[in-house]
Amino acid sequence: MLEIENIHAEVDGRPILRGINLSIEAGRIHAIMGPNGSGKSTLTYVLTGRESCKVTQGSISFCGRDLLSMEPDERAIAGLFLAMQYPVELPGVSGLTFLREAVNARRKVAGEELVDSMEFLKMVRSKANSLGVSDEMLKRSVNVGFSGGEKKRNEILQMAMLEPRFCILDETDSGLDIDALKVVSDGVNSLRSSDRSMLVITHYQRLLDYIEPDLVHVLAHGRIQKTGGKELALQLEQRGYINFIETAA
């Protein structure tokens, strides 16, 4: 589904990624762990098409298409979804309106019938309840005045409604207490399927207790330094990243 080959990228003229190679098949969940400054956020910028990030070498194929030639909105329409570490606020735009416009935009491109307000309300309520997203939250402006846990639950609801083919979870556990983490993780796990893949980016092993990955990659100094199973995440929790940082340096 996603093929990253020898990606080099820089931000504001400073090299960050120095040769990323990564292949994620349909139905698989991969996790990337690494210290601050390792290039985790830059990788999400590359995948989603952020303007401040410049790819200087390499290629990325998404579902057989050249991802780097696509605009950010084209990537979203094609099925790429980013759950951000710090979800943005959209004052004046209700959650219901935002979700319905996003869902109908995807349906329009796919040549499917658009969903009216009443039908959409039934659709969204069926998914919102399991994530602890109330009608009152849906009526409020997107993420305005939300707690950290509410913002993350709202993003997983967006993911559930849009049904993307590839999901990037950028430090979704950031700022969550144990109860909120479990709710969000249950929502993510409910979306696991044979035709949907995920890339989970995190500092800590605790998220991977709830969202179990097929493979774990250690990113340091702009390169993937090691790949293994879930036991690799446990090793990192116990020993930290110092060995990988020293080896990369």
- SS elements, strand count: 12
Strand content: 25-35%
CATH class: Alpha Beta
What fraction, in percent, of the residue positions are helical? 25-40%
Order of helices and strands: EEEHEEHEEHHHEHEHEEEHH
Structural class: alpha/beta
Biggest β-sheet, characterized?
6 strands, mixed
Distance between the termini: 32 Å
Individual helix count = 9
Main β-sheet, spatial strand arrangement = 6-9-10-3-11-12
CATH third-tier fold name: Rossmann fold
Unreliable sequence segments: none
Q: How confident is the prediction overall: mean pLDDT?
A: 88
- The name of the CATH superfamily reads P-loop containing nucleotide triphosphate hydrolases
Q: Specify the overall morphology.
A: globular
Number of domains: 1
Named at the architecture level, the CATH assignment is 3-Layer(aba) Sandwich
Q: What is the gyration radius calculated from CA atoms?
A: 18 Å
Concise synopsis of the structure shown:
With 249 residues, the chain is of the alpha/beta class. Helices cover 37% and strands 29% of the residues.
What does this protein look like?
A hairpin with a 2-residue loop joins strand 11 and strand 12. The chain is globular. Helix 4 crosses helix 6 and helix 6 runs parallel beside helix 7. About 35% of the residues lie in helices and about 30% in strands. The protein has one domain: P-loop containing nucleotide triphosphate hydrolases (Rossmann fold). It has about 250 residues and is α/β, with parallel strands linked by helices.
